[in-house]
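TA notes, week 10

Several of you asked for a full example with nothing omitted. So below is the full record: structure tokens for the whole chain, then the designed sequence directly under it. When grading your own attempts, check the secondary structure regions first.
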């Protein structure tokens, strides 16, 4: 028998250098699902809510309601590999396969729960599942499917459905004189009607002091997040897109305990500042290319980004529709409903004045021009979806204008957010390798034009 000692196993280097501060934020969301299931078991009301850019989230939280977000839950289905049976269930109940992947998966979940499992959570549901809702909160902001999606969900549940609205306009009509005040008045009426509905449904009055307090916490969360992403402009970029996608729900939805979320984002800001100070990159390889991702990611294949990191691709910004802009100064607004209306409206209209100055009709195009220039992108990874017109329709214009105005090339890769059957990672990697030659070429072109990257 040999006395030799087996060599110690060496830990394999991870391609993406994940932020430690990301994990507590991800855990806050997991706790939300646990809390909502517990509340439902105790007979307390629970809510399924659409992304509504904070119009409805804060009144619901101020009323003490437990909320889950089907869009977020769909990403869990996809990333855990459990989405396919729910997509098939939606298809079998007559919904089209080209419908929003978030909608298909949660409609399939509802079909499985209510028509195939006697109202109980399907056993294959990840993270314990979503509790049966007492209220469905839809939204008319941006997406095509939202209004009808939650109406369709109400077919499965004995629960009322409310839809919040937001004026949606292009650059030039959206910057008409006095339009902002008209929009704010419209949103204030919408919110007061919604709050009155909640008070009647729950049999109690709004806690106005709590609502105002949560708005202030939300503003601090958004300011902190904005500071984090500004730091990603440096080279090497200290935070990868996958960390953003993993940590975004407490800012995007105000999911989880908002006070804990603020502390977690402050910790993330500190960690990113330390990385900037010490020149620590978000990937464990030399940063060869700085990439911006548009728009919604393939949640089922996020490990694919490790392969790109090994090639030196650092994803420095992503998914404008999931980023909050810097909050406006609302210190002189005393009415909490008006303050909430202005905070929510700012997401939709914050970039319109810049787009008008540049003569660009589509604000999405202006957004990505500003991102590409500010974060010094070598290329954009465009991910159009047959199942999401709202996130995909403007991408051809983005591609065209980035090429014309900044000589920044784009890689066009069709896929889906939930259905992994329509995304080919091997083919995409091969195309990415070829795209590197294109990025090298346009670096020289930008240099010849006097651009600084």
């Amino acid at each position: 028998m040999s006395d030799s000692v087996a060599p110690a196993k060496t830990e394999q280097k991870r391609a993406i250098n994940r932020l430690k501060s990301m994990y507590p934020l991800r855990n806050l969301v997991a706790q939300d699902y646990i809390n909502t299931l517990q509340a439902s078991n105790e007979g307390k009301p629970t809510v399924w809510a659409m992304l509504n850019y904070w119009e409805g989230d804060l009144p619901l939280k101020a009323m003490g309601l437990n909320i889950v977000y089907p869009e977020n839950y769909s990403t869990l289905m996809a990333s855990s590999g459990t989405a396919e049976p729910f997509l098939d269930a939606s298809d079998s109940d007559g919904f089209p396969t080209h419908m929003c992947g978030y909608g298909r998966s949660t409609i399939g979940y509802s079909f499985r729960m209510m028509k195939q499992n006697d109202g109980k959570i399907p056993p294959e549901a990840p993270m314990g599942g979503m509790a049966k809702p007492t209220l469905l909160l839809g939204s008319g902001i941006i997406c095509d499917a939202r209004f009808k999606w939650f109406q369709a969900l109400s077919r499965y549940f004995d629960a009322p459905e409310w839809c919040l609205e937001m004026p949606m306009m292009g650059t030039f009509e959206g910057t008409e004189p006095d339009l902002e005040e008209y929009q704010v008045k419209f949103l204030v009426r919408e919110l007061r009607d919604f709050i009155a509905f909640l008070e009647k449904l729950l049999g109690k009055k709004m806690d106005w002091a709590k609502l105002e307090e949560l708005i202030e916490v939300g503003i601090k969360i958004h300011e902190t997040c904005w500071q984090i992403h500004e730091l990603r402009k440096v080279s090497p970029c200290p935070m990868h897109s996958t960390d953003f996608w993993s940590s975004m729900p407490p800012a995007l939805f105000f999911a989880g305990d908002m006070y804990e979320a603020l502390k977690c984002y402050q910790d993330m800001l500190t960690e990113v500042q330390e990385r900037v100070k010490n020149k620590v990159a978000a990937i464990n390889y030399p940063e060869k290319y700085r990439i911006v991702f548009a728009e919604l990611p393939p949640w089922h294949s996020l490990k694919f980004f490790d392969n790109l990191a090994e090639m030196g691709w650092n994803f420095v910004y992503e998914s404008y529709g999931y980023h909050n802009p810097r909050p406006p100064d609302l210190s002189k607004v005393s009415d909490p409903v008006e303050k909430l209306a202005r905070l929510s409206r700012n997401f939709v209209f914050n970039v319109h004045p810049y787009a008008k100055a540049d003569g660009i009709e589509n604000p999405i195009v202006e957004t990505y021009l500003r991102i590409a220039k500010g974060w010094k992108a070598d290329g954009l990874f465009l991910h159009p979806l047959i199942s999401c017109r709202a996130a995909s329709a403007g991408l051809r214009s983005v591609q065209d204008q980035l090429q014309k105005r900044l000589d920044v090339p784009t890689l066009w890769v069709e896929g889906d957010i939930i259905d992994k059957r329509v995304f080919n990672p091997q083919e995409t990697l091969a195309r990415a390798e070829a795209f590197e030659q294109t990025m090298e070429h346009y670096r020289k072109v930008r240099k010849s034009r006097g651009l600084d990257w």
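Strands lie at 46-49, 66-68, 135-139, 161-164, 289-294, 313-318, 379-382, 410-412. Use that as a sanity check on your answer.
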